[in-house]
Design goal:
Blueprint lengths: L7 E3 L6 E4 L10 E4 L2 H9 L6 H16 L9 H13 L6 H14 L5 H31 L6 E5 L16 H8 L4 E6 L6 H12 L4 E4 L4 H6 L5 E4 L3 E3 L4 E4 L2 H10 L4 E4 L5 E2 L16 H4 L18 E4 L6 E4 L2 E3 L7
Parallel strand pairs: 4-5, 4-7, 5-6, 7-10, 8-11, 10-13
Antiparallel strand pairs: 1-2, 2-3, 8-9, 9-12, 13-14
Helix pairs in contact: 1-2, 2-3, 2-4, 2-5, 3-4, 4-5, 5-6
The structure holds 5-S-methyl-1-O-phosphono-5-thio-D-ribulose.
Length: 340
């Protein structure tokens, strides 16, 4: 039995957010403690901590940690707390879990005036969000494992595993549960350009857990599907609109188109905290644009000329019609979606 991955949690002294630095995997396993507002924001923006549920948990614990460093002047404290909350909430725009978690902890303290009480309630609510996230991952695993038969060959994109959540993951949770039940499963991990979350992170955590995993470059997915090597696809989500459109890591849409063409089911696995009823359709989802260097100079090695323009959206939207079902902590939903 390997020890569980804890991508984001309280530090042992509960004075920091402890994260696994995902920029360094798979070569180096290193944990970091985040104590200041700048550290929390920087860790989220640089993908040191990443994945929709994980940045939500990091945002909530991070706010509880940095709020304790805010002014003790009772007149200025509420305004400084709001400024900190906004900075963390806005660190990345697409994954709704971040805004959801920060709004949730802030809503708990809205009517409170006493600084010490506010700090205590922020900690309590952040801990609850972490605990709930763990439980939601486990429930997704249980619901989703029913879709995985013995011998299933599963393609996934990006990393929606333990590294992306406070618990055992979303897209990978059904795989972990099926594997633990003794089902033979084989995973094909898209490497996921440009930041390689699939090869660096998904392959690392599956191999560590003893789940057979094969890395393919993104442009191999079509031929692998055509060769009959894939039975189903499971991916995560950063935001699910009310109509079932799904924002997830760039390339997910392509996988969904390919899966439909080859008659392969594509499942999206996500906790309730990723469903955004306030967003009507995928067209309303803000897609994060990231640095051109991630494409042109990946991992410090230039692979495109400086003269070339670079387009680097971090996410795309898969229309609901290409999604076979959405696996959540409360069950498996199919269109037309009425998430309960
Ligand atoms: O940019 P990232 O690495 O944070 O993107 C992560 C993804 O797109 C995941 O698939 C998604 O957040 C689901 S994580 C359970």
């Amino acid at each position: 039995m390997t020890t569980p991955i804890e991508a984001v949690r309280w530090s042992p002294a509960a004075d920091a957010v402890r994260i696994i630095d995902q920029r360094r995997l798979p070569e180096h396993y290193e944990e970091r403690d985040l104590r200041t507002l700048d550290e929390v924001v920087e860790a989220i923006q640089t993908l040191s901590v990443r994945g929709a549920p994980a940045i939500g948990v990091c945002g909530a614990i991070g706010l509880a940690v940095v709020a304790a460093t805010a002014t003790s002047d009772p007149g200025a404290f509420p305004q400084e707390l709001r400024r900190m909350a906004t900075a963390i909430r806005d660190a990345r725009p697409t994954a709704v879990n971040l805004a959801w978690a920060v709004d949730r902890v802030m809503a708990r303290v809205e009517s409170l005036a006493d600084r010490a009480t506010i700090l205590a309630v922020l900690r309590e609510e952040a801990t609850r969000i972490l605990d709930e996230d763990r439980a939601m991952c486990r429930a997704i695993g249980e619901h989703g494992s029913a879709l995985i038969s013995d011998g299933a060959r599963i393609l996934t994109h990006c990393n929606a595993g333990a590294l992306a959540t406070g618990g055992m993951g979303t897209a990978l949770a059904p795989i972990y549960v099926a594997h633990a039940k003794g089902h033979r499963v084989a995973v094909f991990a898209d490497e996921t350009r440009p930041l390689l979350q699939g090869s660096r992170l998904t392959a690392w955590e599956l191999a560590r857990a003893g789940v057979p995993v094969t890395v393919i470059s993104d442009n191999m997915a079509a031929s692998v599907m055509r060769s009959g090597m894939i039975d189903l696809c499971i991916v995560g989500a950063d935001r699910i609109a009310a109509n079932g459109d799904v924002a997830n890591k760039i390339g997910t849409y392509g996988v969904a188109v390919l899966a439909r063409h080859h008659g392969i089911p594509l499942y999206v696995a996500a906790p309730t905290s990723t469903i955004d009823p306030a967003t009507a359709t995928g067209a309303d989802i803000v897609i994060e644009q990231r640095s051109p260097d991630e494409v042109a100079v990946p991992f410090g090695h230039r692979i495109a000329p400086v003269e070339a323009a670079i387009h680097n959206p971090a996410f795309d939207v898969t229309p609901a019609e290409l999604v076979s079902a959405i696996i959540t902590d409360t069950g498996v939903f199919r269109a037309p979606y009425r998430f309960g």
